[in-house]
Specification:
single chain, about 110 residues, mainly alpha, 4 helices, about 35% helix, globular
Length: about 110
């Protein structure tokens, strides 16, 4: 897949499912099983997430699902920052904003 073409794909009635594993975590780096331990990404894991984001940057999407683990959430957010639409909403960034006005800006 090309990483330099940032034109959005044409909208169709088809759906696409993209599954992205989290980037390298601090325990992955040490060759430890992580399970549900909430460990963050390494520098390499951050770079992996950004690279994946570049590779899928032109694929339109409506929703992102992730686990509650920080390594998965970090991967999802870093991947999303590379998307050509540049529309990244962090829920913490909405704190204190009017819900109706925010819905008008970002949609439901």
């Amino acid at each position: 897949m090309q990483t330099k073409n940032y034109e959005p794909l044409r909208m169709t009635n088809e759906s696409t499912l993209i599954i992205v594993p989290h980037g390298e975590s601090m325990w992955n780096e040490k060759n430890l099983f992580t399970g549900c331990v909430n460990v963050p990404l390494t520098r390499k894991g951050v770079e992996e997430a950004i690279e994946v984001g570049k590779r899928i940057s032109t694929i339109p999407f409506d929703i992102v699902y992730t686990s509650a683990l920080v390594r998965s959430q970090m991967t999802a957010m870093l991947t999303r920052t590379q998307h050509c639409c540049r529309k990244v909403v962090l829920y913490g960034d909405l704190q204190g904003l009017n819900k109706q006005e925010t819905t008008e800006i970002f949609g439901k």
